Amino acid sequence: MAIRIEVVPAVSPELREMIAKLDEDLLERYEPADIHGLDFTAPSIGDMIFVVAFEDDIAVGCGAIRPLDHSCVELKRFFVDKAHRRLGIAKQMLETLEREAASRGFRSIRLETGKRQPEAIAFYQKNGYEQIAPFGPYVGEKYSVCFEKWMAVRPA
């Protein structure tokens, strides 16, 4: 199994296919109002970096980072198709997005996941993310669990 991770534009059909599968997965766990997606018509969508994982020419995963401020990005829409989980694909995508963030001068990555996604929580903890208080739109959300990883020296 040869996996490749590609940076793709927001209009990529493979990206949209993977996000649709992510939304299906989330709707099995949460009500629509509890899902924090992306507005692909927002002008800021151009500031995001999207990746898609491919096995041969088949999309099997996706993820993105978006700037929160000059030093921090947020990991968004991170997903691996159920049939391709536990094969190291998520780790490859995460490492790619971390490198992309670091190469652009960002020092930390934040993310939000949900209490009904224990596999995601375990994955982020295993990869060096520490739980933090909810931030931004996730403050007060009943299912939100937030994490952060510092890629550079944490400020005092």
From TrEMBL:
<feature type="domain" description="N-acetyltransferase">
    <location>
        <begin position="6"/>
        <end position="152"/>
    </location>
</feature>
<protein>
    <submittedName>
        <fullName>GNAT superfamily N-acetyltransferase</fullName>
    </submittedName>
</protein>
<keyword id="KW-0808">Transferase</keyword>
<dbReference type="GO" id="GO:0016747">
    <property type="term" value="F:acyltransferase activity, transferring groups other than amino-acyl groups"/>
</dbReference>
<keyword id="KW-0012">Acyltransferase</keyword>
<dbReference type="InterPro" id="IPR000182">
    <property type="entry name" value="GNAT_dom"/>
</dbReference>
<dbReference type="InterPro" id="IPR016181">
    <property type="entry name" value="Acyl_CoA_acyltransferase"/>
</dbReference>
<dbReference type="Pfam" id="PF00583">
    <property type="entry name" value="Acetyltransf_1"/>
</dbReference>
<dbReference type="InterPro" id="IPR050832">
    <property type="entry name" value="Bact_Acetyltransf"/>
</dbReference>
